[in-house]
Amino acid sequence: MAGFLKSLVPKRFRKEGVAIPVVRLQGAIMAAGSQFRPPLNLSTAAPALEKAFAYRDAPAVAISINSPGGSPVQSRLIFQRIRELAAEKNKRVLVFVEDVAASGGYMIALAGDEIFADPTSIVGSIGVVSGGFGFPEMLKKIGVERRVYTAGTNKAILDPFQPERENEIEYLKSLQLEIHQVFIDMVKDRRGAKLADDPDLFSGLFWTGGRGVALGLVDGLSDMRSELKRRYGPKTRLELVSAPKGLFGRKAPGIGGLSGDVAERIGSAGVAAVASLAEEKALWGRFGLS
């Protein structure tokens, strides 16, 4: 039916070439961000992904990734949604790395049937990291006593205001190892025989796109426009897909009406924004991109 309707349109008004939907997944991967800077997670990525895979005549969906990682849960959820949509709509997924697809960013990239990068892109960092700060000595200096009351002997585990305990560190490391193994299994399942036999592959190291090809983490070095036109013809159109917007534009996550103490809410949002930006800056900074 679509082909018949298209034939009724005068030739000079018809768009030639195949249209390939493009989705950009960019930023630190977090369950929640600030009201001023939405994070990359399933809820923010899903609408654009659903829209892109709904292109009836497109043979593939192109996904651009630029992320230093973040939440392993959200990374895996985005990965799963892409693979589910690819199977449901029978689309090939082509992933293109921009500056970086590391840690959770690379986990999402694994959803691609093929992964491409620039020679200077950063890929890999297949590992798990947890970070924080400890303040017990500072509390002593300023004369503050920490009081914690719990029901459950491990409820206050890894409290940053108390000295570290070896058993708590070991427990955290055991959780990291479990998550790391899930990541490793995903890489092996998706990349299979393409992977090089390198002892550092799952050590958390990261590499350039060129080295990523040699290690089997990347399929080739190319940019999106060149690769898609090479595959589908010089008249191929790249159509950027974004999340649907409301009548007056997209509503920022978490913003409600103006009832209540507005000053308090703005101040609270400002503090959350600073913390979120600091966390994101730290993630980018690991790869020299802060």
Please sum up the structure shown.
The chain is an alpha/beta fold and 290 residues long. Helix content is 40%, strand content 15%. The chain has nine helices and eight strands.
- The fraction of residues assigned to DSSP E strands is 5-15%
Q: Tell me the number of helical segments per DSSP (H or I, 4 or more residues long).
A: 9
> Considering the protein shown, what is the CATH homologous superfamily?
2-enoyl-CoA Hydratase, Chain A, domain 1
The radius of gyration over CA amounts to 23 Å
Top CATH class: Alpha Beta
Keywords: Hydrolase, Protease, Serine protease
Domain Peptidase S49: 88-225
Protein name: S49 family peptidase
Family: Belongs to the peptidase S49 family.
Label this structure with key terms.
ClpP/crotonase-like_dom_sf; 290 residues; 40% helix; alpha/beta; Peptidase_S49; eight-stranded mixed beta sheet; 8 strands
Question: If you had to describe this structure to a student in words, what would you say it looks like?
Answer:
The chain has 290 residues and is of the alpha/beta class. The chain has one domain: 2-enoyl-CoA Hydratase, Chain A, domain 1, CATH 3.90.226. Helix content is 40%, strand content 15%. The chain is built from 9 helices and 8 strands. It has helices spanning 2-8, 42-53, 72-89, 104-109, 136-141, 166-191, 209-215, 224-232, 262-285, and strands spanning 19-26, 60-67, 92-102, 114-117, 122-124, 206-208, 220-221, 237-240. Strands 1, 2, 3, 4, 5, 6, 7 and 8 form an 8-stranded mixed sheet that branches. α3 links the parallel β2 (60-67) and β3 (92-102). α2 packs parallel to α3. It starts with a helix and ends in a 5-residue tail after the last helix. Mean pLDDT is 80; it is low at 250-269.
